[in-house]
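Supplementary notes for students who missed Thursday's class. We covered one full example, reproduced here. Read the sequence, then the structure, then the short commentary at the end.
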Amino acid sequence: MSWDSVPASPAVALYPPVASHDAGFLDVGDGHRIHWEVGGNPLGRPALYLHGGPGGAVTADARRFFDPARYRIVLFDQRGCGRSEPRDRLEANTTAHLIGDIEKLREALAIDRWLVFGGSWGATLALAYAQRYPARVAALVLRAVFLGLQRELDWLYAHGASQRFPDAWERFVAPIPAHERDELVGAYHRRVVSADPAVALPAARAWCAWEDVLIAGGPADAADAADAADDAGDAALLTRARIETHYLVHRAFLEEGELLAGAHRLAGIPGVVVQGSADAVTPPASAWALCRTWLAATLVVVPGEGHSSSEPGIQRSLVAATDRFCSADGRNHI
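Structure (token representation):
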């Protein structure tokens, strides 16, 4: 492992917007269809972007982390999310299913190997996929590593972040009766999957508002984060809360320490891990632990920045990483 500081003067923060030139739906079984799209250079180096959440969705800006002249950029919405169908479906929706979907998409697009890029939950999924199919991964670019460890869940929903943001924590636990607060993830999950909108929607708003405070990274931003959750749209909030709590009550469908124990499978895969030093969602300990075992990785710590991929130093570091891994002539050599 090597540890780099954020690049001093990268060429670009983000590449200009680029539209997709191909898109469609892929039937992945179990009643699910995933929406995918491809942009950039059709002859370029294949790259897969994995969105966060679980329960998020891709946006057009995801393509801007890649040079569109040199990358063939693949995006897709994970099961139950975004434009994939059916929305919100939790049945047959596990980490193993998502890994299988990635492989089916790779085969459908006739890609041999690709760079895999993911942040937060996207980093979790990227690691799980790479450990299952290392021969199909040419490189990894990860941001804000989440490993599905109990200590990470305790930080978020028991003792940890609550000590940094006590006012937001009080708002988060307020909808849950005292006798259920020992297991907040389960308590919220039971509510957000309720068929009664009067139960599900307030719980989804409170769940997402707490997470948005952590992403915003400070008490001064807490009110704005709560407002943002309210303004996100009921359907998007419910999808995010339902799928996220579904995965978290099942510990991301991973054994404790599974991704650390399997890091030796990444030995032949180069990677860059970008981590904000002030990340309040996924603190640096997990990125550090991963890179102590995955020696082919470079850990880039961005001083003073947090969890979001919109932070300027995080963006510059991610673009520098994808630039590092693309070939000079823009053709597919992998």
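Commentary. The first strand starts at residue 2 and ends at 5. Residues 5-11, 220-231, 328-334 have pLDDT under 50 and may be disordered. If anything here is unclear, bring it to office hours.
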